[in-house]
Amino acid sequence: MSTIDIETARRVAKLARIRVADDSLPQLAQELSGILTFMEQLGEVDVTGVEPMTSVTPMRLKRRPDAVTDGNIQDKVLSNAPDAREGFFAVPKVVE
Asked: Which of 23, 28, 58, 63 has the maximum number of C-beta atoms within 10 A of its C-beta?
């Protein structure tokens, strides 16, 4: 069983950029220890023959043919540009 001490909880909070009051560190350490214990339990489960899944419900995303096209909508795309020149987006110069 893995246990997280208060100093490790403080370090994790700092790395996560979460401000945790000193009096809340023992509770955070306990919660992190509980998470690690649960992860260790999951590692003990026999998953032989179990297919990986991405959802609890069987589903398949709609697919479209993977065909390369030029889009042929350059004018439509450039209509959103604040400044377009010669068929391209025009942007301010940033390097001299």
From this structure: 28
Nearest of 7, 1, 6 to residue 27 by alpha carbon: 6
Query: 59: which DSSP letter?
Result: -
Question: Rg of the chain's alpha carbons, rounded to an integer?
Answer: 26
89 DSSP β-pair partners: 84
pLDDT digits 0-9 by tens, 19-60: 999 999 999 999 999 999 999 999 899 999 988 887 888 778
Question: Which residue, 51, 53, 9, 67, is CA-closest to 33?
Answer: 9
